[in-house]
Amino acid sequence: MKRMKILSLGLISLWLMALTLTACGGSPPTSQEAAPATDTQTSTPAKGLKDVKVVLDWTPNTNHTGLYVAKDKGFYEKAGLNVQIVQPGSGGADQMVASNAAPFGISYQEGVTQARTQGVPLVSIAAVIQHNTSGFAAPVDRGIKSPKDFEGKKYGGWGSPVEEAVMKSIMDSDKGDVSKVKIINMGNADYFTAVKRDIDFAWIFYAWTGIEAQLRGEPLDMLYVKDYSKSLDYYTPVIVSNEQTIKNDPELVKAFMDATAQGYEYTIAHPEEAADILSKAVPELDKKLVLASQKWLSPRYQDDAAQWGVQKPEVWQNYSDWMYERKLLSKPLEVDKAFTNGFLPKR
After folding, report:
1. Are 94 and 62 in contact (CB under 8 A)?
2. Taking the model in full, what pTM does it have?
3. Domains in the chain, please, with CATH?
4. 79 Cβ contact partners less than 8 Å away, ≥ 6 residues apart
5. Are 15 and 47 contacting, i.e. CB atoms less than 8 angstroms apart?
6. Average model confidence (pLDDT) across the chain
7. Each residue's pLDDT tens digit, 221-254
């Protein structure tokens, strides 16, 4: 399975172009980063249920388990919904949701932030994970124990301005010099292949690639970006909808979120059973990896929040200010329009 990636500003630009071209009747550009739009789970529409699509950000993994649990346990059906979980097309999940090709999708705070400042009507309606579990990872034999140790090393990325900005931010805190890092565009290369062949470190989600490294017996040094700046403790991933759906069908959003919250709450309480549900729904996944990842991730979905899915305005403000100060945004973010907790169930 290809490694999970953080959405880059380069990809955001691609789907913004795709959205514009689609609106103008043209053909959107293709991206090698996104998989074709395909069902990840077959379903037979039940009589009287409303058909709803939710688009994943990448191939199925434990960030998405709550969706599969909500479907398997009948939470969606009880809410009156026949939910189809699909992988993104060439334009990506954000483009599909923003253009209303699907009412719901999985995105990232950085993607929504960039989109909102460019007039794209995405709205985050829940945080899947309460704290950022991503960071820079290197095999232990590279000796990368702190950000300053990036100096003289080769970083494998995907060519986005945000990568160097994040790297510079955490290296500055350690008196390091980002200009001394050799940045290589590794594209879709598998992390484990790349670190043996081309690079010393890369940006990963620990819940998947980090856990896989444990199972392979290839220990990592992991530098979580949130540990170096509160501005980098942003929500990744998030569940998104669009302004049109929220305005025209708020009851749909409420029903979807109530059932989805039940799915993630069940996954928090029953990680082993939830892992089995995901593995059965997506049998091509490595069952050992799914189980180990789920055990690590389940307590981190809600973490220290009052309930699963809650988003704090200061998290959105801190990260968008960080982006704007580094000229990664064309204008400041209107935080109160970027997210809402209004569709989370009352607990």
Report:
1. no
2. 0.88
3. 9-130+235-338 (3.40.190.10), 134-232 (3.40.190.10)
4. 255, 256, 258, 259
5. no
6. 89
7. 999 999 999 999 999 999 999 999 999 999 999 9
